[in-house]
Amino acid sequence: MAVLAGETLLEISRKPWHPPDYMRLGAAFFVRGDFPWLGHYFGSQKLASVLSPGIGGVVSWGGRAPAKLADSVARFRHLRHWHLEDGFLRSMGLGKSGAIPLSIVIDDLGLPVDAGRPSRLERLIEGAGEAGERGRAIREQIVLNRLSKYNHLPHRPPSIERTTKRRILLVDQVVGDVSVGRALGSKASFEKMLADGLASDAQCLIRTHPDVMARLRKGYLTDGASKGDAILVGEEVSVASILDVVDEVWTVSSQFGFDALLRGIPVRCYAAPFYAGWGVTEDHFGAYTKAALAGRRTKLRTVDQIAAAAFSLYPTYRDPADWREIDVFRAVELIVAQQKAAA
């Protein structure tokens, strides 16, 4: 473990696609206001406006309107543009509750959820042939400690009707989730997934968001589920607790599918999240998605190789206590320590 962790630290210092340390960067008002800690990932500098003179590039967060505006400004000003997002092992708590991330991703090509064009993550997975051993060590630590992207929910078995049938988890997503369209999915993708599930000889569980259960937001599968025999699972329990009791996971673009792969659970994808198209998932892509991916994701990759790229080669980890750069193994230790302190 120690040797692998040291190797990982070397890797995270070698990211030539990142902005140079000395470069002054601009960001939209939304980014500067909502992520005041972000400058610590860029030499502890204060981010400027995207309209400021003298900036060498622009950073944006996610894929919504402010990010599209930042991209337009960068193009107009002939500046480089880096796309930012939370890492796949983010924190104990939720971002909307104020939890600062232990990791972010910085991508000069696109968002990791965007299947319409190559991302830096996709290229790292393509080149991860030698990284399987590191990925195995990371996967084992994440599974052993029952971790996911967020880690605030309790570990307890969900209350689900007993059955002798194969149990399939259909992962619902909130309407408006940017990752759905970016992964080349749509409402029709969810409808097809639900129809296939209900037509199978299996018990179908639908994992939906608690806000959907409380009718605060709308999910893609909620209305359709009431017309069939699927069981809605909206309990606030950890991802690991749900995956403990299912035989397969079907998804459109959720990271839930990646969490399942890490635990050896078969995964079927109805769109193209970053972990699909490499031979580790059963891909039910439409003709448009197949055409968009033509000539890309051509290599077969193992779960461990994908894990190495997603958790080690791609993200940057920092300890929010002092903003020192750390590796994924130290990030695991910090999350586990926070969980124990909160117990």
TrEMBL record:
Gene source species: Rhizobium hainanense
Lineage top rank: taxon: Bacteria
Lineage of origin: Bacteria, Pseudomonadati, Pseudomonadota, Alphaproteobacteria, Hyphomicrobiales
Protein name, per record: Capsular polysaccharide export protein
GO biological process, one term: polysaccharide transport
